[in-house]
Amino acid sequence: MTGAPGNLKPRGNIFETAAAGAFQLFYAKVVARLLAPIGGLLLLRLLQPEQYGLMIAALVIPEILVMFTGFGIDDAVTRYLARLRQDGRYSAAAALAESGLLFKLGTALFLTMLSYFSAGLLARAVLHKPYLEPLIAIASLAIMSRSVLTFAQACMLGLDLTRMYSIVSVLLEALGVVLPVSLVLLGRGAGGALLGIILSSLVSGAVGIFAIISNLLKTPRGQGEERVPHFRALKEALSFGVPVWGASLARSALTRYYMFLAALFISPVDLGNYYAAVGLLAPLAFIGGPVEGVMYPLFSKVDSSSQRQLLQRTFVYSVKYLSLFVLPIGVSLMIMGRSLTNLLIPGYTTVWIYLTLLALEVILNDGTGASMLKRLLVAQGLTKTIAKLDLLAMAVGMILGFILIQRFGLIGLILSGYPGGITWLILAYRSASKRFGIHLPWRSLNRIYISTIITTFALLAVIVSPLDELGKVVVGVGLGLATYSVSLGMIDALDQNDIRNLEKAFTGRPIIGWLGVHLIRFIGRI
After folding, report:
1. By mean pLDDT, which of 176-190, 359-373, 463-477 is the weakest?
2. Which of 54, 81, 300, 411 places its Cα 20 to 30 Å from the Cα of 438?
3. 303-337 b/e (C-beta count within 10 Å ≥ 16 → b)
4. Whole domain around residue 63: which residue ranges?
5. Is 0.90 topped by the overall pTM?
C-alpha cells in the first residue's frame, strides 16, 4: 500500500497540529463573527420580541425531528475518516463518506416532508397555536438544511479540511447576515427571517459537500487496496454512530423538551428575549467551538492502551486553553450584560437576566472540562457509559423542567438543568479516572480561575460607576482585558510550554495572529 498523499500526511507534533487546526477554525470564526453580530443585531432591532419568539416557537417541532436524521452518522464519519486517513485506506474513506451522505439525506428528506405536510396539524393539535402553521411549514425546511450542513462539517473535520471548514463557516455567517435581514427589509417579517436562515445553512452545506467530493476524487488510492462496499461501510459506521446518537439523544432530547415546554407555557415575548440572550452568547461559542471541534478527531487518534500519558496531557491542554479564553469572556457577559443589552437592543427588556444565567452555565460547563470530557469519552468508544449518564441527567432534568418551567418560566428552564449536569460531571470524571487516569486539572486551572476572579472585581467597579451605558461597555472591555492579561502574567498562570504553544498557534494568523502573539509575549514577560 502506498503512503499517504502529500496533503493527507500526518505531520508535526500532535499538539502543534491540533493547535494549528483549532486556530485556523478560530480565525475563520473571528472573521465570520465580525459579520454575524451585525446581522443578528439588525434582525433583533427589525423584529419585535414577539415576532422573534414566534419564529423560535415554529422551530420547536422541526428541531425535535432533526434529531432523527442520520442516527449518529456525523460522529461516526468524523471518527472513522480521521482513522482511515491515518491508515491510508482512502477507498474505505470514500465509501464511508458517500454512503453516509446518502443515508443522511434520505432520512432528512423523509422527515422534512413529514413536517411540511403536517404543519397545520402540529400547529393546532400539538402547540395549540393555529397561527403558527405557515411558519412551521417554512421551518420544516430547516431539517434538510441542517442535515446537509452538519454532515459536511463532520466530514471536513475527519478529513482535516480545516481550511475548507473555515471557508464554509465564513460563508454560513455571511449569508446568515445578508439573507434574513434582506427578506425582513422586504416586508417578509418573521417568515422571511426564518427562510433566510434556512437558505444560508443549505447553501453553505452544499458548498462543503462539493469540496468533500472533490477532495475524495483527487485523493489517489493505494495499490491493491480493497474496495469497501457502501453497505458495509455504512453498517460499520452506524455500529458506532447509533450508540453515540443514543447517548447524545438524551441530552438533545432534554434541550428540545425544554424548548417544547417553553413554547407551550411561555409567551412569545419572553421567548424572544430568551433567544436573543442565546444569540448574544456567540462570543463564547466561537471561542469554544473550534477547540472542541479539533480535539474530537485528535482524541480519536490516541490509543489509550499504549498512549495513556499522551491522552492525559491532551485533555489537560484542551481544558486549560479552552478555559483561558472562555472564562473571562463569560464573566464579562455576566457582569456587563445589562449595559450591553440596554445599549444594543433596548426593546428586549429582560434579555440581560437570561444572558447572565446562560453565561454562568457555559462557564461551569467549559471551566470544569465537561464539554471536553464528553468528547474524549465518545472518541474513546465509551458510548454506553455516556448513554447511561445522559439518560440519568435527562430523567432528572425532565422532572424538574416540567415543574419549574410552569412555575418560574424561563428562569426555571435554566435552573432545571443544573442538578442533572452536576451529577453527570461527577460520574463522568469517576469513569474517566478509572479507565484513563484523567481528573479535573485543578493545578493547571486554578491560576486561570484566580485571574478571572480578579477581573470580575475590576468589571464590578466599572458597572457601579456613574458612566453611561456606552462608557461602561467601552471602559469595561479595556480594563477587563488589561486586568486579566496582567494578572495572568503576575501569578504565572501560563508556563513556558503554554507560551510556546500559544505563540505557534497564533503565528501566521492575519490580524488576530499579530495581536495574539504580542499579547502572549506580554503576559510571558510579566
Report:
1. 359-373
2. 81
3. ebeeeeeebbebbbbbbbbbbbbbbbbbbbbbbbb
4. 47-235
5. no
